[in-house]
Amino acid sequence: MKLALMQANSSVLDIERNCAAIDRAARTAAEAGAGALLTPELFPVGYAPLRVRAELDPGTLPGLRRTLAGIAAKHRTALVYSLPAVAPGGEWQITATVLDHAGNELLSYAKVHLFGPEERKAFSPAEAAPAVVDLGGLKASLAICYDVEFPETVRAAAAAGADLLLVPTALAHGFDSVPQVLLRARALESQLTVAYANHSGQEDGCTFLGGSVIAGPDGELLASAGRGEELVYAEVSAEAARRARDAVPYLRERRPDVYRAWEKPGAAKPSQD
Q1: For residues 168 and 84, what is the distance between their CA atoms, to the nearest angstrom?
Q2: Which of 4, 119, 201, 259 is 20 to 30 A from 211 (CA-CA)?
């Protein structure tokens, strides 16, 4: 499947403008033959956690989701987007959703690891593990931004059978090693493709890195973006993950029971001379 990755500048709480940008990207991606489009974290509302929490009417979210579903259906391409959501207990979370080419929801996920004081003040962390769904013949899963910097998140998706991890993100400038080093390591160690879509430009005083990437299951870069607005593409497949796992069977040979024992209190014993 040809995967498109959108890197763009969002306008905080200008939902109409942001959805128009997604619509244009989806049209361009579909015309290029892409089967799916991945967009950045909170792009439809803009990345500004405190303003979003204070000023966004949660009653607008169902209509916004319908708009995004309409974009997917109009262009006949799967779409991955990220929005705030209000959980049944009333807490706000950062979520991501996968839609199929008809606009039907296939998968949703809520962010487990919140980054920085603003996110922690505006949102609550989730606890559910990444789930897996069929997307164009690939087993796909979701994580959001800071989640992917924890190896446990990516390994959980891989252990559940994912060939592709889709990651909407909002990464500020100064963290170049995350997409260029850490993301490639995550893809390699868990032997799946990792697609990471970031914002560009400035939003509410934050300057974003850009630098979105798609890293293959062998750790190689399949696509990378610069600093500005850009659509990048890569061919992704389940076969690439199978080849990597056959070459070096990390997933088959891991020993989770042993690792859990290592984390128990008193498990680490001093060496004896």
Answers
A1: 13
A2: 119
Is 206 an active-site residue? no
Identified catalytic residue from 118, 119, 145, 149: 145
Integer Cα distance of 234 and 250 in angstroms: 25
Q: What was the pLDDT predicted at 141?
A: 98
Q: Strands 206-207, 2-7: parallel, antiparallel or unpaired by DSSP?
A: unpaired
Give the SS3 label for residue 38: strand
Could you give the CA distance from residue 96 to residue 232 in angstroms, rounded to a whole number? 20
- The H-assigned helical ranges of 41-124 are 49-55, 61-75, 116-122
The single residue of 19, 111, 139, 149 carrying the catalytic annotation is 111
- In this prediction, residue 81 carries a pLDDT of 98
Q: Is 237 exposed, middle or buried (0-12, 13-18, 19+ CB in 10 A)?
A: middle
Q: Is 41 a catalytic residue?
A: yes
Is 253 part of the annotated catalytic residue set?
no
- Residues 48 and 200: their CA atoms lie apart, in Å, by 14
At 78-136, the pLDDT tens digits run 999 999 999 999 999 999 999 999 999 999 999 999 999 999 999 999 999 999 999 99
The set of residues, in sequence order, having a beta carbon less than 8 Å from that of 173 and lying 6+ positions away, is 207, 208, 209
Assign 265 a pLDDT band (cuts: 50, 70, 90). Answer: confident
Per DSSP (E only), the strands in the chain are 2-7, 36-38, 78-86, 92-99, 105-110, 132-135, 138-142, 164-168, 193-197, 202-203, 206-207, 213-215, 221-224, 230-235
Model confidence, pTM: 0.96
Section 31-48 average pLDDT: 98
